[in-house]
Specification:
It is built from 26 helices and 16 strands. It is of the alpha/beta class. It folds into four domains: about 45 residues, no CATH class; about 160 residues, Substrate Binding Domain Of Dnak, Chain:A, Domain 2 (Up-down Bundle); about 150 residues, Rossmann fold (3-Layer(aba) Sandwich), CATH 3.40.50.2030; about 230 residues, 3-Layer(aba) Sandwich (Rossmann fold). The strands form four sheets. Strands 6-5-4-7-8-9 form a six-stranded parallel beta sheet, sandwiched between helices. Helix 4 crosses helix 24 and helix 11 packs across helix 13. The radius of gyration is 24 Å and the shape is globular. It starts with 9 loop residues before the first helix and ends with a helix. The chain binds Broken Fe4S4 cluster (MSK). Broken Fe4S4 cluster binds next to helix 13, helix 20 and helix 24.
Length: about 625
């Protein structure tokens, strides 16, 4: 089995081997066999009496030194993963909310509110009265209402929870005691209750995990919506994807990580410095390319080409044509520093909480971001002169991408068909079976799975069955690179009925070609866009989210953030497919809670299936069941 579904990258993997450079796949091989206790979640390192390991099969210990059994240990380990994912996504949102507040108070010149309509829509959503108020006043109130979700003392649900879900869902969460009031205290709560000698009841621990995961959801809502306010709400935009977007005749700069506060500035400043790059001999000037979710952010809003998703981030440097990689937070392999040192590439870290030894740290904070972005780009231009032409190898492949499907842009497009009830065309097509259902693909790549294989294999099968696909994060990267986000893909892979709908929508959108069968909704935090669309559909139909023919899938999950996302997606009522079992195999109780018990309580649940064809068939089966329950043709 190869490393990547897309074989155009193989030349770079071979190049790395020729140059004795270890890549993620080599390090994985060296790590084998991986620790079986760790894989099953039954290794406890929470106190210094340990580590303790539970023997899952033989006559060895069935409890740790303190007496914690496998269920307690697995549940504690799992909810700590959820807390880490929640912390990551919510801190991302907090940084953006703080920036918005500084904009409102006139404390920064580097950012401004770009999308006033979105700001006002948010104010309305959060029940903020805008009558007679200035834009700065509304901005401040929106920022404060968002920041309050991180620190509320009262036991009322977070603003971004109570105002973004269906009423019946909010009631279910409240009745279960998991309607989150404060993101940061939910993370503290997990760390506290999982301390040695505190909560030892696995069910109680897992319930706290559900509540904390909703903090991940709230953080995502804040990240997406406030980023749209600052940088604009995405509209359909045409670009390209895959390593072939690296341009031999340009100063190439990759932006990588998650936070658009930094990448937006880099893109702006690069525009100003084109001439300087041309003078340095790069006839095509500066070429910014994206990696991972920072790449998705600037693809959606600026049309910046997406070079790659998570697993092949190292290969961007192996092209020998990357002058700089500028990283912010999350999903950045520390190995990049070592690989960059084998080339002329300079790796820049930009956030105080995400430094990498061997990288150059130039901080892009609110006050100096423009100035320091210029320093980074100047250094990249100097690096261009040091490029060794003999070491350049850029794979040719790149595919056309239509991205930018925010909820707003989808509704705007549909309103061209029905101005009064824009969701009606989608609902009619779901009811008549032209669109059988929708699957939202999210999550990472994992070195244990051939890169992008599960994403692409599942999508082809689902599309053929007239199921529409939405995608975010590295799932979106997989589809962008592998030619599933353009009109040709609609002709090639969509079932006849779906093809008709996408053709009609493309025409109405003025594209003259069908819409792509996989709609790029953005970065990981933009899973909130998928929820907004689902909630709008559920409200229009008068049902709750668990009744919609809608399923989520993370077939190549990897990060703790993927665990927290999957958990809140199930909590809000959607079935969630995952392509591998997280470290919970040591506790049947935990597996039962996440599958059957959760389904009984909230309608959402996890399905584990490694085989992508079997997984697609299971999702098709679930969608059929949901259609029958809604009383429409399966
Ligand atoms: S970047 S969290 S590898 S999707 Fe959002 Fe990709 Fe997963 Fe990171």
């Amino acid at each position: 089995m190869g490393n990547c579904y897309d074989t155009s990258n193989n030349c770079l993997i071979n190049k790395a081997h020729d140059e004795n450079i270890d890549l993620v796949w080599d390090r994985y091989e060296k790590m084998k066999p991986q620790c079986g206790f760790g894989e099953m979640g039954i290794c406890c390192r929470i106190c210094l009496k340990g580590p303790c390991r539970i023997d899952p099969y033989g006559d060895g210990p069935k409890e740790g030194i303190c007496g914690a059994d496998a269920d307690t240990i697995v549940a504690r380990n799992l909810v700590r993963m959820i807390a880490s994912g929640t912390a990551s996504h919510s801190l991302h949102g907090k940084e953006i909310a703080k920036t918005l507040l500084h904009v409102a108070k006139g404390e920064t010149d580097n950012y401004k509110v770009k999308d006033i309509r979105k700001l006002k829509n948010i104010a309305e959503k959060l029940n903020i009265d805008t009558e007679g108020k200035t834009i700065n006043q509304i901005t401040e109130e929106v920022a404060m209402a968002s920041l309050m979700d991180y620190s509320r003392l009262e036991n009322t649900p977070c603003n971004w929870l109570s105002n973004t879900l269906t009423k019946s869902r909010l009631k279910k969460l409240t009745d279960l005691g998991v309607a989150l009031n404060n993101i940061e205290s939910s993370v503290t709560d997990i760390m506290s209750r999982t301390h040695m000698g505190t909560d030892a009841d696995a069910i109680n621990i897992l319930l706290a995990g559900l509540k904390c995961a909703l903090g991940d959801y709230v953080g995502m809502q804040i990240s997406t919506n406030l980023s749209d306010t600052l940088f604009g709400t995405p509209e359909p935009i045409i670009s390209e994807s895959n390593l072939g977007v690296i341009n031999e005749n340009a100063v190439n700069i990759a932006v990588h990580g998650h936070n658009p506060l930094l990448s937006e500035i880099i893109v702006d400043v690069a525009d100003e410095m084109e001439e300087e790059a041309i003078k340095a001999g790069a006839k095509d000037g500066i070429n910014i390319v994206g990696v991972c979710c920072t790449g998705n952010e600037v693809l959606l809003r600026r049309g910046i080409p997406l070079a790659t998703n998570f697993l092949s981030q190292e290969l961007a440097i192996l092209t020998g044509a990357l002058e700089a990689m500028v990283v912010d937070v999350q999903c950045i392999m520390p190995s990049l520093a070592k690989i960059a040192s084998c080339y002329h590439t300079e790796l820049f870290t930009t956030m105080p909480d995400a430094k990498i030894s061997g990288a150059t740290h130039i901080e892009l904070n609110e006050k100096n971001s423009v100035e320091n972005a210029r320093v980074i780009i100047k250094k990249a231009i100097e690096k261009y002169k040091m490029r060794d032409k003999n070491k350049v190898l850029i794979p040719k492949r790149k595919s056309k991408v239509i991205a930018g499907f925010s909820t707003e842009s989808i509704i705007k497009l549909l309103s061209k068909i029905d101005k009064e009830r824009p969701l009606k065309p989608i609902i009619d097509n779901i009811v008549n079976g032209n669109i059988k259902g929708v699957v939202l693909f999210a999550g990472c790549n994992n070195v244990k799975i051939m890169q992008d294989n599960n994403f692409v294999t599942m999508a082809k099968k689902l599309l053929d069955n007239n199921i529409l696909i939405l995608a975010t994060g590295c799932a979106a990267g997989a589809y962008a690179k592998n030619e599933l986000m353009n009109s040709e893909a609609t002709f090639k892979y969509a079932g006849e009925k779906l093809k008709e709908v996408l053709t009609l929508l493309g025409k109405e959108a003025g594209l003259d070609v069908p819409l792509p069968p996989v709609l790029h909704m953005g970065s990981c935090v933009d899973n909130s866009r998928g929820v907004d669309l689902a909630v709008a559909l559920a409200n229009e139909l008068g049902v709750d989210l668990d009744q919609l023919p809608l399923v989520a899938s993370a077939p190549e999950l990897m990060s703790e953030k993927a665990i927290s996302i999957g958990t809140w997606v199930a909590t809000i009522g959607l079935p969630v497919h995952i392509g591998m079992l997280p470290p919970v195999g040591g506790s049947q109780l935990t597996i039962d809670v996440l599958t059957s018990k959760l389904k009984e309580l909230l309608g959402g649940y996890f399905i584990v299936e490694e085989n992508p064809i079997k997984a697609a068939n299971k999702l098709i089966g679930i969608i059929k069941e949901k259609r029958v329950d809604l009383g429409i043709e399966p």
